[in-house]
Design brief:
The structure holds 2 protein chains of 2 kinds. Chain A is of the alpha/beta class. Chain A folds into 3 domains: 2-146 and 274-344, 3-Layer(bba) Sandwich (FAD/NAD(P)-binding domain), CATH 3.50.50.60; 151-271, FAD/NAD(P)-binding domain (3-Layer(bba) Sandwich), CATH 3.50.50; 355-461, FAD/NAD-linked reductase, C-terminal dimerisation domain (Enolase-like, domain 1), CATH 3.30.390.30. Chain A has helices at 12-23, 39-44, 46-64, 66-69, 80-104, 163-166, 183-194, 214-228, 321-335, 364-370, 385-390, 418-430, 435-439, 450-461; strands at residues 2-8, 28-32, 108-111, 113-118, 121-125, 131-141, 145-147, 160-161, 175-179, 198-202, 231-233, 237-243, 248-253, 259-264, 266-269, 273-275, 308-310, 349-351, 356-361, 374-380, 396-402, 408-415. The longest helix of chain A is centred in the N-terminal third of the chain and has 25 residues, at 80-104. Chain B is an alpha+beta fold. Chain B is built from 12 helices and 27 strands. In chain B, strands 17, 20, 23, 24, 25, 26 and 27 form a 7-stranded mixed beta sheet that branches. Chain B has a 4-stranded antiparallel beta sheet with strand order 1-8-6-3, with no helix packed on it. A 4-stranded antiparallel beta sheet of chain B has the order 5-4-2-7, with no helix packed on it. In chain B, helix 9 (328-341) crosses helix 10 and helix 9 packs across helix 11. Classes of the chains: A alpha/beta, B alpha+beta. Chain A binds chain B through residues 338-341, 343, 402, 404-405, 407, 430-434, 437, and chain B through 205-207, 210, 212-213, 216-217, 220-221, 233-234, 237.
């Protein structure tokens, strides 16, 4: 069968590029290895983890905050099986949603492993071993990524697990040891901590979520420590993980070179993800990977073969669903002859812990390194009416602005609605707004968003109204 | 404070204009009434004078077409003028004035190909007078026509050549020493602090010229660099609308023909945006073809009698009237007479009615640098040959210089077009709507004709009359053209009105 566009992978990058291509009048095929569409994000990533995060958050509130709100219930019990069943229901609903969108846009869905035969032919190998060939004028590689796990970590999928298995556990761990305190580790670690697990983080870097502004990691660590009694081992290098049947033993080395030994019943390895290109047979079309990633043209995302494009986790940049979506749209439009552009500096990063963390633009560390003259405006949630009323007083908004021009250079938020709040900062920065611009725009009261305005006031001239 | 300048209303029927050229650049310091740009409507070109003094911020680019009332540029209170005035002492004012004063020479412009010198007929301003930009300062006379000379700058005039003096083209006849208008000069102090207090809006913003995400995409697809677009958004940001309205600056000079061109087998092609004049011409011509029942009748005119008459009286005519005796006066007058005898040819349709005119305003099609224009000779029925000839010369010159006004181009009742000047033997002209008929003149060729049973050689011109058959029947159209032929072949008839 012949198509204008063949998309390999149906994650948020792949299925969005398929829809956009179809909107632009092209005939589109999408190939998915798994029975369900939606990729990592929808099946074993963003969506299921958010479902569990919310369930665990409800449980945590019922256990810790209801009494304070005047709701008296007997001690709640966490039913992990039900939580996972609910999560599976959420995922199923989203799967159906994506299938509906494919049908609506007349996109042909092929289930099986997509691999290159030649530059215009992709073979789809089904589970039963049968295969068929599709030919496409353009091919978009959107095969995504897989969790990284090193050989010495003895991954077994039972007690030594990755994020995928962590979303399917049968019991609440008593002591979960999380290797890596980055985004994924922090999210899943906090899920189980709120369900009652003791959680210990082991991280090679100096703090949590090390790629974000350091004030965020510090604040997050403070909250996790205070509320969830999580423990942290920073600048600690894991040397071995062993499943001893009922327990897992982690051996590591701290900054001083001293040995550290930790024992728990589960070990979640969350040290990152690697581009997943294993089954594509890229060598058939002469595309080479660079440290696992597929090199692409910075503006058009074309690979070494001009009519083959690559997007999302298989190319450079942050492994984020919304970044992949932007790239999916961009490629479809490039194929259609348009000239779209992505401002990668303004793709927000989000961590779905509680409180959430979100950020866009430069971190303070980056600005220091660049030697840029900047000013900082900060505003804590505890000074905010809405946060106090809702009982979500942890967190802060930090705005960094150019010392000379007042242009906003970075916004970092940790707090109850950070993931939604960051949108204002992204919009403002796309238009190169100044801190004063934000502070002169009306923000509804009482809302969490007022914290952004107050931080902007603080950045403008240290004149926030409520501190 | 910044003044936002909008496209002025330039005529009743004009709804949009195109920016033909910016005379000033973005960021230039401009003075009140200084010409900022040239606007082109479908009928004429206009100059847009500054409404105030300050720094020019261009909003709409060259080649853009804007509706009447659309913002075209901003004039921001000049920061340059504001800087030296912290104390706003009167002493500071002259410094500013001095810095701005500039001497501009007033030279005699080229007025026509064959004209090498002109005579200063009269000065309308005296030495020491303050003159505004483009204000008429004197009248010039050549052997063909008279011209008005506008001031090239605003300032104090010093006359260097006396009235009655003959001066060659290019000679300096006066100087204008630039400066603020007397009214402004009288009150320098209050204006300065005002300017200081005005925030330097937008112009200096770090974000000026930053395109919104959608604007960036639009510009990339149009292949227009962000730098060439003026942002109308807050702080000079480029909005999606700015990007949508932006157009590539069209290179006005056509690519020079390369001597080695024949080698390029594939050849090249060049795209130019249609001017609004050209667009209107194209739209109107198609509309006329579609909306009228147009057809053409032909005849031939023996030009010998007119040529004989011209030969005989050409010099005398010039001596007496100061203008040459051409063919146009004969044709115009003949048409005027015929139009009065066949009023339906001089009429037009308005809805369900036919409007008959008892005057004959005859449009003359003239090829101007920017395209075809049709100035009108009014009340030809009351004019003598000399009147017509001098009016033709006057209008043709204005057409050539793009100086025709709207009034001079509207309201004709009949049109004469002369394809003969380009060598046309025969053609079917298109009616100039809403008129009902047009006479096409052609070249004069010596042809054998039979006169009194003998073949003789005569200078013959074929004439064509295209007319709207909806109102004009064959009897009238053919009758009209035959009448024109009669009048031209025997000009005496025009004199006697027979």
């Amino acid at each position: 069968m012949q198509f204008d566009v063949i998309v390999i992978g149906s994650g948020p990058g792949g299925y969005v590029s398929a829809i956009r291509s179809a909107q632009l009048g092209m005939s589109v095929a999408i190939i998915e290895k798994y029975p369900n569409l939606g990729g990592t994000c929808l099946n074993v990533g963003c969506i299921p983890s958010k479902a569990l995060l919310d369930s665990s958050e409800h449980f945590y509130n019922a256990s810790h905050h209801f009494a304070e709100h005047g709701i008296e219930i007997s001690q709640p019990v966490a039913n992990l099986t039900q939580m996972i069943t609910r999560k599976n229901g959420v995922v199923e609903k989203m799967n159906q949603g994506v299938s509906f969108l494919m049908k609506k846009n007349k996109i042909k869905v092929f289930q099986g492993i997509g691999s290159f035969v030649d530059a215009n032919t992709v073979q789809v190998t089904k589970d039963d071993g049968s295969s068929e060939n599709l030919t496409g004028k353009n091919i978009i590689i959107a095969s995504g990524s897989k969790p990284t796990i090193l050989p010495f970590m003895n991954f077994d999928g039972k007690r030594i697990i990755t994020s995928t298995e962590a979303l399917q556990l049968k019991e609440i761990p008593k002591h979960l040891i999380v290797i890596g305190a980055g985004v994924i580790g922090a999210e899943l670690g906090s899920v189980y901590a709120r369900l009652g697990s003791k959680v210990t983080f082991v991280e090679f870097a100096k703090g949590m979520i090390p790629t974000m502004d350091s004030s965020m990691g510090k604040e997050l660590q403070k909250v996790l420590k205070k509320q969830l009694k999580a423990e942290f081992h920073f600048q600690t290098k894991v040397t071995g993980i062993e499943n001893k049947g009922e327990e897992v033993v982690i051996t590591a080395e701290n900054a001083k070179g001293e040995p550290v030994e930790l024992t728990g019943d589960y070990c979640l390895v969350a040290i990152g993800r690697r581009p997943y290109t294993d089954l594509l047979q890229l060598e058939k079309v002469g595309i080479e990977t660079d440290r696992g990633k597929i090199p692409v043209n910075e503006h058009t995302l074309q690979t070494a073969v001009p009519h083959i494009y690559a997007i999302g986790d298989v190319v450079r940049g942050a492994m984020l669903a919304h970044k992949a979506e932007e790239e999916g749209v961009l490629v479809a439009e490039v194929i259609a002859g348009q000239k779209p552009h992505i401002n990668y500096k303004l793709i927000p990063g989000v961590v779905y812990t509680w409180p959430e963390v979100a950020s866009v633009g430069y971190t303070e560390e980056e600005l220091k390194e660049m030697g840029k003259a900047y000013k900082v405006g900060q505003f804590p949630f505890k000074a905010l009416g809405r946060a106090t009323a809702s009982g979500d007083t942890d967190g802060l908004v930090k705005m960094l602005a150019d010392q000379a021009t007042d242009e906003i250079l970075g916004v970092h938020i940790i707090g109850a609605r950070a993931a939604d709040m960051i949108a204002e900062a992204v919009t403002a920065m796309e238009f190169r707004a100044s801190a004063e611009d934000i502070s002169r725009i009306s923000h509804a009261h009482p809302t969490y968003m007022e914290a952004v305005k107050e931080a902007a006031l603080a950045a403008t001239g240290n004149r926030s109204l409520h501190t | 404070m910044a003044i936002e300048m909008k496209v002025p209303s330039v005529g009743e029927s004009v709804t949009e204009v195109t920016i033909a050229a910016w005379v000033k650049k973005d960021g230039d310091l401009v003075k009140m009434d200084e010409v900022l740009c040239e606007l082109e409507s479908d009928k004429a070109t206009f100059e847009l004078p500054a409404e105030g003094e300050g720094v020019l911020r261009i909003i709409a680019q060259e080649g853009e077409t804007l509706p009447i009332g659309a913002p075209i540029c901003r004039i921001e209170a000049s920061t340059a003028a504001a800087t030296p005035a912290p104390a706003a002492t009167p002493a500071a004012a002259p410094t500013v004035a001095e810095a701005e004063s500039k001497t501009t020479s007033v030279t005699i412009p080229t007025v026509g190909e064959s004209i090498t010198e002109v005579t200063i007929a009269s000065w309308s301003k005296k030495s020491g007078d303050y003159v505004a930009l483009d204000e008429v300062i004197c009248e010039l006379e050549s052997d063909k026509a008279t011209f008005e000379l506008p001031s090239p700058a605003a300032g104090i005039l010093t006359i260097q050549a006396e009235a009655g003096q003959a001066v060659p083209i290019g000679a300096v006849v006066a100087t204008v020493v630039g400066g603020a208008a007397p009214a402004a000069a009288a009150t320098p102090a209050p204006t300065t602090p005002q300017a200081t207090s005005a925030p330097a809006s937008g112009a200096t913003s770090y974000a000026a010229g930053h395109p919104s995400p959608a604007a960036a995409k639009v510009l990339a697809e149009k292949g227009i660099s962000v730098e060439s677009v003026a942002g109308s958004g807050i702080g000079g940001r480029i909005t999606k609308e700015d990007a949508q309205n932006a157009s590539k600056p069209v290179s006005t000079s056509p690519a020079p023909a390369k001597p080695t061109a024949p080698v390029a087998a594939n050849g090249g092609s060049r795209r130019e945006k249609m001017t609004s004049l050209r667009k209107t011409i194209s739209r109107r011509l198609v509309a006329v073809k579609n909306e009228t029942a147009m057809l053409t009748t032909f005849n031939e005119v023996d030009m010998k009698p007119i040529m004989d008459l011209r030969k005989q009286y050409k010099d005398k005519f010039k001596d007496v009237h100061g203008v040459g005796l051409g063919f146009m006066s004969f044709f115009t007058k003949a048409c005027s007479i015929a139009l009065q005898e066949f009023p339906v040819v001089n009429a037009y349709i308005d809805g369900d009615e036919i409007v008959y005119n008892d005057f004959t305003d005859i449009s003359i099609a003239v090829s101007a640098p920017r395209g075809l224009v049709v100035p009108v000779i009014r009340n030809v029925e009351k004019m003598n040959f000399a009147d017509i000839e001098s009016e033709v010369v006057r209008l043709a010159l204005k057409a050539r210089d793009n100086k025709l006004t709207l009034d001079e181009m509207t309201g004709g009742t009949f049109t004469i077009t002369n394809g003969g000047i380009f060598g046309s033997m025969l053609s079917t002209p298109i009616i100039n709507a809403p008129q009902s008929a047009i006479l096409g003149m052609h070249n004069i060729v010596e042809r054998p004709v039979v006169v009194g049973g003998e073949v003789v050689i005569r200078p013959i011109m074929y004439v064509a009359l295209s007319y709207d058959h909806r109102t004009i029947d064959g009897k009238d159209s053919v009758g009209f053209l035959v009448r024109v032929k009669q009048l031209l072949e025997d000009p005496m008839r025009m004199l006697l009105q027979v």
